[in-house]
Amino acid sequence: MTGNSTDDGNMEAILDVMGCKTRREIINLLREEPRFVSQISRELDIGQKAIIEHLRAMEEAGILSSFFRKIERGRPRKYYDISRDIH
Prior knowledge:
Structural class: alpha+beta
Mean pLDDT: 86
Shape: globular
Helix content: 55-70%
Oligomer: single chain
Distance between the termini: 29 Å
């Protein structure tokens, strides 16, 4: 048996993302620069809860990565970016 099952799973995840208009819109935003949930929500006019679910699914599929960045006031924000493997 070859290692294609991982590749097939990754391809399936990518196709799943590309089949969803909202996820394509998120990817297009993130191509410009990393963003945090409320930015994406505001720019796409979609609720934060829905955005979080899309981001979680894409991060689990390895399409997105996330990191925390300190801000002047308050707790650090979680930013999302396109994974280096996908660029």
